[in-house]
Design goal:
The chain has helices at about 10-20, 30-35, 45-55, 95; strands spanning about 5-10, 20, 25, 30, 35-40, 60-65, 75-80, 105, 110, 115-120. It is of the alpha+beta class and about 130 residues long. It has a single domain (about 5-120), classed as ADP-ribosylation fold (Alpha-Beta Barrel). Strands 1-6-10 form a three-stranded antiparallel β-sheet. Strands 5-8-7 form a three-stranded antiparallel β-sheet, with no helix packed on it. A two-stranded antiparallel sheet has the order 2-9. About 30% of the residues are buried.
Length: about 130
Amino acid sequence: MAELLHITERSSWEAARAAGTYEMSTRGRTLEEVGFIHCSLRHQLPQVAEMLYSDTDPSALVVLVIDSERLTAPVRFEPPEPALPNAGGEDGEGARGGGAAEEFPHIYGPLPVPAVVAEEPWHGNSPTV
């Protein structure tokens, strides 16, 4: 299984479970608006969570563990949108500085609920893994 992660508000995930598909791209923006669902690899998640959800109670968030082999939509690894500070590494070059930006997985279509193989709580920048 190739594991992808997506952090979201628990209420959005609960609505998706009832509907059968998840169609939020990122905080406050839908798949239809953005064109893909933002995901992360495990080592990328703390930076993404800090950028998007630093003002949110961690208990209101959930990390979706996605089995990419269960997806029907294509996954592409691309530079972050918008550029994340230090996305290219510790030296700060990243997407803004001229170094090669680290790429993040993007799902180009709806996320079927059965592709989510686990839900993990988020505890600030220390996920329970």
